[in-house]
Design a protein that fits this description.
The structure is a single chain. The protein is an alpha/beta fold and about 290 residues long. It has a domain of about 170 residues: D-Maltodextrin-Binding Protein, domain 2, CATH 3.40.190. Helices cover about 55% and strands about 10% of the residues. The protein is built from eleven helices and six strands. Strands 2-1-3-6-5-4 form a six-stranded mixed sheet, with helices on both faces. A hairpin with a 2-residue loop joins strand 4 and strand 5. It is rod-shaped, with a radius of gyration of 51 Å. It starts with 10 loop residues before the first helix and ends in a 5-residue tail after the last helix.
Length: about 290
């Protein structure tokens, strides 16, 4: 009998055989990997067991040094320049904040000291007529600046008006108001000795006891009346740009030198600057008696 020819394998059969072989190879690899992992696990567990035993021997004093347990010191990493700066700011942020605040406050104080105006002379304006003050104070300051020199040596001649509303009506409002407290405080220092006022403020300043009697040096002027040099009827209002006639009781005077919180010597220095200015003012606006 003739031998039958073997049928050639189809493509599908070849693919199935190759897939089966691949699966078998992968299964073998997985088994090898599993066996390796199992061996590593057992080795690690054995290592831990040996280290525990070694540690117990060390603690019990059975051995002094272990060949398997070594104290590990992590290597210290060197910081970059940027990391060092960041680390410094992080650990010192509170102190740096306080230091920055102190520097800001110091800068503000220095700015105030350098820009603060230090007048060469101060004039107290005591009146409840705030319209008169707001309309004329700059002209009054400029007028008296012409009578004096640069006293404090800052290269400028500056006169300032300190306005304090003061009148009998003010005194009656609450007995002792904020205005009276300011006026009382000013009269406890010797910074301002020239006073432009009216009779309404007399209850505050008691002029017969606090102001110089001008009759001693200026009795030959019609406007002189004890401690007052009356401004009504003079050209003072016109000179300072005030279009209305001044009240009959408006006057200028100067405080008597006495011991104050600033010391009598300090007030005397201010008086020695202010009295010649008052003299020039009276000579300019006063009318000599016939």
């Amino acid at each position: 009998m003739a031998e039958k020819k073997k049928k050639e394998k189809s493509v599908a059969q070849v693919m199935q055989e190759m897939q089966a072989q691949q699966q078998e190879i992968e299964a073998q690899q997985r088994e090898l990997l599993r066996q390796k992992q199992e061996e590593e696990r057992k080795a690690y567990e054995e290592k831990l067991r040996q280290e525990k035993l070694e540690l117990m021997r060390l603690k019990q004093g059975i051995i002094e040094e272990s060949e398997t347990i070594h104290e590990e010191h992590p290597e210290e990493r060197k910081l970059t320049f940027g990391e060092k700066v960041s680390n410094f700011f992080y650990h010192n942020k509170w102190w740096m904040g306080i230091g920055s605040l102190m520097l800001i406050l110091f800068g503000i104080l220095m700015w105030q000291m350098l820009t603060m105006v230090h007048p060469d002379m101060i004039i107290l304006l005591l009146s409840d007529n705030d319209i008169f003050y707001s309309a004329t104070y700059e002209n009054i300051e400029n007028m008296f600046a012409e009578y004096i020199e640069d006293v404090n040596g800052d290269g400028k001649t500056i006169v300032e008006i300190y306005y304090i509303p003061a009148s009998d009506e003010t005194a009656e409002r609450s007995g002792y108001t904020g205005e009276s407290e300011k006026l009382f405080a000013e009269f406890q220092t010797g910074e301002a000795v020239l006073v432009i006022s009216d009779d309404g403020a007399d209850s505050f300043i008691v002029p017969e006891h606090t102001l110089v009697n001008l009759e001693d040096d200026f009795s030959n002027y019609q406007e002189t009346d004890e401690w007052r040099f009356r401004l009504s009827g003079t050209k003072f209002a016109e000179a300072i740009g005030w279009d209305e006639p001044l009240d009959e009781d408006v006057y200028i005077g100067i405080r008597t030198v006495k011991k104050t919180l600033d010391s009598e010597e300090k007030m005397q220095e201010v008086f020695d600057v202010s009295y010649p200015a008052l003299k020039q003012f009276i000579e300019q606006f006063g009318t000599l008696k016939e």
